[in-house]
Design brief:
- By secondary structure, this protein is of the alpha+beta class.
- Helices cover 59% and strands 16% of the residues.
- It contains eleven helices and eleven strands.
- The strands form three sheets. Strands 5-6-7-9-8 form a five-stranded mixed sheet, with helices on one face.
- Helix 5 packs across helix 11.
- The chain is rod-shaped and about 175 Å long.
């Protein structure tokens, strides 16, 4: 549920609660007023009948014994139902008229019944009537709040319509205020989405609300700090990669100049000893052969290490053949893994050493990760040169395996981080798709040319 809807619902709930409490209070007040009004009318009627009927028998004559009272003249006493019953219990006269009935009909039955339920029971009054000392019947006064209930219903109906109009107008006003007050949240959400997507140039506008304005300032400062930190990390990573390459070159040089030459000398001395052993010292022949074989093995091993460290194969064979050699060598070392690859770089123009080394190292790192972590049985690699237009072309690399997938720790590991830094350094793109036990798919594009501020990137070198 959105914050806007939640606020509107809370305000509506408060308004509804206020209306309910107000209605309960109004009904309670109306109930008390009705009882007070009816009780007052009842007291007045009792007083009048007590003075005019009970204590003044000379007022009536024998001729009027069948209709000793004119109760129709008391029709204005709307809160009381006054009835005269003769000695046989037959209704002789009443103050109830059509006007009274119409007043009763002003309130729905359910409302009258409801008010009757919440009100205390009404007690009727019975006054015996005697004319010239003879009992003629009785006057029965019954409290009748129906007319009052009708008036209350009309008042409540008016109040209800007014409350509905107030409720609707309040909702419109509250919705307008809430939407206007929270509209800057959309700017915040949009800025956070852009930041999540990696756009470090995003900036929030100055918001009018003081609280949100502080958030805007803090957000912009955070983006600046984050951008600076990320740039520093990129610089450190690029520096680390360059140092790594220099160390590899230095190590390759030391292996070639020191270790390689020493192994060559040992192998040559072993050959001399082998000749002497064949002729004069046959007993040392097995040891000499072992030294010769071991030195030859170490020379091959050092040669492989030199090829991996120095990347001289790139200069000698070119990127396409160097990659094929790398893939074939990896396949020989991992015969249990089915490697299916395709390298199509025949149309590749002459490119800078940075792109060549980056391409080679990326494939090398991917193969290393597969052999160490993937536990894959099948690996597919496709490397293509794609020319998008006259000024833009890329080396497109797609790699898939059916291994265990990448865990969170592996995704944040140094190998992939270094790969990302190499790609970012030449403004490339990388997309990694991985599900647990469903392998890994890498889609990498390394631009050979890229326009920056209208100028061509110097990663491309003419044919």
């Amino acid at each position: 549920m959105s914050l806007k809807l939640r606020l509107i619902l809370i305000i509506n709930a408060v308004l509804l609660l206020i209306l309910i409490l107000g209605g309960v209070l109004a009904i309670d007040t109306a109930k008390k007023n009705v009882r007070a009004e009816v009780a007052s009318a009842e007291k007045l009627a009792l007083y009048l009948f007590d003075i005019g009927v009970l204590n003044n028998p000379k007022y009536y004559s024998i001729e009027s014994e069948f209709k000793p009272l004119n109760l129709q003249s008391l029709v204005h006493m709307r809160h009381l139902k006054i009835e005269f019953f003769n000695l046989e219990g037959k209704l002789v006269d009443s103050n109830v008229s059509e006007t009274h009935t119409k007043a009763i009909d002003q309130a729905p039955n359910w409302f009258v019944n409801f008010m009757g339920l919440i009100s205390e029971p009404w007690q009727l009054q019975r006054l015996p009537v005697e004319i010239l000392g003879q009992a003629k019947g009785a006057i029965v006064i019954t409290p009748d709040p129906s007319y009052e209930f009708g008036e209350i219903w009309n008042q409540f109906a008016g109040i209800f319509y007014l409350a509905c109009a107030f409720f609707i107008l309040t909702n419109i006003l509250v919705a307008w205020i809430v939407f206007r007050a929270l509209s800057p949240v959309e700017f915040i959400l949009k800025a956070l989405t852009e930041l999540e997507a990696g756009n470090l140039k995003v900036k929030m506008p100055n918001l009018k609300t003081s609280e949100l304005s502080a958030i805007s300032v803090k957000f912009n400062n955070m983006v600046k700090t984050l951008s600076s930190s990320i740039e520093q990390n990129h610089q450190l990573s690029r520096k680390l990669i360059r140092i790594q390459e220099e160390e590899r070159k230095s190590l390759a040089r030391d292996l070639h100049d020191e270790f390689g030459q020493s192994l060559t000398a040992i192998h040559a001395d072993a050959a001399v000893l082998k000749a002497l052993a064949n002729k004069d010292y046959p007993k040392i022949k097995p040891s000499v052969n072992a030294i010769s074989d071991l030195s030859k093995h170490l020379m091959n091993l050092v040669g492989g290490m030199l090829g991996s460290l120095k990347l001289g194969v790139l200069h000698e064979l070119g990127l396409e053949e160097a990659l094929k050699d790398l893939l074939n060598t990896w396949q020989l070392r991992h015969p249990k893994v089915s490697l299916n690859y395709q390298v199509s770089l025949k149309a590749l123009p002459k490119i800078s050493e940075t792109i060549s080394v980056t391409s080679y190292r990326i494939i090398q790192e991917c193969l290393t990760n597969i052999s160490r972590h993937a536990k894959a049985k099948n690996v597919e690699i496709r490397i293509d040169y794609i020319k998008k237009n006259t000024s833009s072309a890329v080396i497109d690399i797609t790699m898939k395996d059916d291994g265990v997938g990448l865990s969170k720790s592996h995704q944040d590991g140094f190998g992939l981080s270094g790969m990302r830094e190499r790609i970012n350094e030449i403004h490339g793109k990388i997309n990694i798709t991985s599900d647990t036990n469903c392998g890994v798919k890498l889609k990498i594009q390394l631009p050979i040319t890229k326009k920056i501020n209208g100028q061509k990137n110097h990663h491309r070198i003419s044919r």
